Amino acid sequence: MTTTSSGRHQQGGRTATGGSCITNGSYGNTWLAARKQLGVAATGELSGIDSWEHNVTEAAATVHERFMRETLQLAERGRGRVSPRPLVGSLVVRDGIVVGHGFYQEPEPSHAEVRALREAGAQARGATLYVNLEPCAHYGRTPPCTTAIIAAGISRVVAGIRDPNPQVNGHGFTQLREAGLEVITGVLAVASTQLNEVFIVNQLERRPFVHLKVAMSLDGRIATRTGASRWITGTAARAAGQALRHRYDAIAVGVGTVMADNPQLTDRTGWERHRPLVRVVFDSARVRLPPDATLVQTARQTPTWLITTTTADNAEHLARLARCGVRILAVEADDRGRPCLATALERLFSEGISSLLVEGGAMLAGAFVDARLIDKMTCFIAPRLIGGTTALSAIGGTGAPTLEETLQLTGVTLEQVGTDFALTGYAGRTIIEALAAARVAEQRFSL
Ligand SMILES: NC(=O)c1ccc[n+]([C@@H]2O[C@H](COP(=O)([O-])OP(=O)(O)OC[C@H]3O[C@@H](n4cnc5c(N)ncnc54)[C@H](OP(=O)(O)O)[C@@H]3O)[C@@H](O)[C@H]2O)c1
Description:
Blueprint: H1 24-38, H2 58-76, E1 89-94, E2 97-103, H3 112-120, E3 128-133, H4 145-151, E4 156-161, H5 171-178, E5 182-184, H6 189-195, H7 197-205, E6 209-217, H8 235-246, E7 250-254, H9 255-261, E8 278-282, H10 294-297, E9 304-309, H11 315-323, E10 327-331, H12 341-350, E11 355-358, H13 362-370, E12 376-382, E13 410-417, E14 420-426, H14 429-446
Parallel strand pairs: 3-4, 4-5, 6-11, 6-12, 7-8, 7-11, 8-9, 9-10
Antiparallel strand pairs: 1-2, 1-3, 12-14, 13-14
Helix pairs in contact: 4-5, 6-14
The structure holds NADP nicotinamide-adenine-dinucleotide phosphate.
């Protein structure tokens, strides 16, 4: 079952009084600065839109969409093996037949387009190249893909979305057009944006993409009044939760969850990933993470990072955790002696974390919601009622004082997972805008 809502997103409604380090203003300024860097107006167009007019017949559009769907499936094969770079697939098609295909995956630095061109060889001359993200136009780890595409004699490039990376951002399309190639954009732009939602937020906000995951009862509880929480949802939902972990660079929990549940927080899908999943514990100046916790005892096998504050004065305890292999990251404290979330995210990003799955508990989830630092949310809902006024509800924190200031999810989907339901939606302003731009680009293409 899939339903879509088009509810409005409330960015301006920060209601938290907790972290003086996090203000609506400072978050908004980062967002504005990112747009200024890209030369995009605050309310302007994002990665999906290309102002070039296309003249594509309905039959050709259907063909382009079919090959773009295949391109997206190819790109998906890099899942778990591209971070911090984007998921990219590419096809070279000649006379309706695929003669080259490629997708990007580490550790091979060559891009999807170059791999597809390599396979196509001489057959690339006069062919169409499909790619979900704009080809790069600059020297990075590899030479520009635009140069390789032009040199191979490709006559038409069909693309999903523009690359928000300031070094590319439209230059790739321009270079190809200036070389005389036909360039068609906006093909399956929404799916292309969703595929690279992490990369888009990374590029525009210079912080990890944050996805909040909650498993709760129908009445929004994550534990009973006695603290029992395992398991609220069934095996299928828990397996889906594992699959979600596989998509992320790191998982975060609050120290309260470690103390209550002593979790492992590992990726047990068995699927290949090129970097180990990092487990991040948000602690406070008190530093309560127990040295005998599973996360600490296994820190040498699976990375465990502790986020505390620069005001923590529990040096002996921190040293003990460090001796067990826990990496300590101290960041600025808010006025409750807890890590400032915006600063913690910046720090994690600088340490190579592109995406973060926040798994609770209630206080940490509430702090992220209050700070409006959530891009996406998935709620696994079990059709059972826990009840009780003292049973923990999924989202703690300060909360919204008025309904106008609540955090509204958009682009919501609901699917049945075993005996439970998974509701997923977007909450972050940047990704919501990028999706809106992609919808416009898609409409322009199919007009
Ligand atoms: N069903 C689910 O999806 C799910 C998932 C996870 C957990 N749970 C359940 O949730 C319960 C634990 O939740 P909880 O709310 O008590 O604890 P929590 O959110 O896991 O951890 C809260 C603690 O984290 C520390 N912290 C560090 N930075 C913080 C920040 N910026 N904002 C807020 N807290 C921060 C605080 O320590 P100080 O107090 O020292 O400041 C706070 O007490 C358990 O019963 C667990 O089973 C359920």
